[in-house]
């Protein structure tokens, strides 16, 4: 009798453990990349870029850390590759009390501020966090030189 109970316990633990593993694997395989949205005003061109990027991210099924943008995306929106990382360029307007350490925290490379306007290079891997920063009033992605 004791052996039957012990055997039943072992079988129950094995079944529940395997069932849990199968569920975890199934859930992990269905995780879609997080959609990137802005918490401050952005230009129409930036809205188009985010829409295009989100479509490509969803189609790839990869997180942005593993994502490689298409040639169409890189040509249309001036995405450059530096030291193995993809960046977008643009200009942002910030409030007087903006903390530039927040840009550093998401890996943004930025230039000199002129009348609260800052040129930036944002890594694609930091876009989600960048668009959640506070005290930014506006962002506009750069346009390709051939579009002027």
Helix content: 40-55%
What is the CA-atom radius of gyration, in angstroms? 23 Å
Main sheet: strands, sense, barrel: 6 strands, mixed
The CATH architecture assignment of the largest domain turns out to be: 2-Layer Sandwich
Shape: globular
End-to-end separation? 85 Å
Strands, total number: 6
User: Any low-confidence stretches, pLDDT <50, length ≥5?
Assistant: 1-32
The CATH class of the largest domain is Alpha Beta
CATH homology-level superfamily of the largest domain: Peptidase S8 propeptide/proteinase inhibitor I9
| Succession of helices and strands | HEHHEEHEEHE
Strand percentage lies at 15-25%
Structure notes:
The structure is a single chain. The protein has 148 residues and is an alpha+beta fold. The protein folds into two domains: 1-31; 41-147, Alpha-Beta Plaits. Helix content is 41%, strand content 21%. It has five helices and six strands. Strands 1, 2, 3, 4, 5 and 6 form a six-stranded mixed beta sheet that branches. β2 (79-82) and β3 form a beta hairpin. The radius of gyration is 23 Å and the shape is globular. The relative contact order is 0.17.
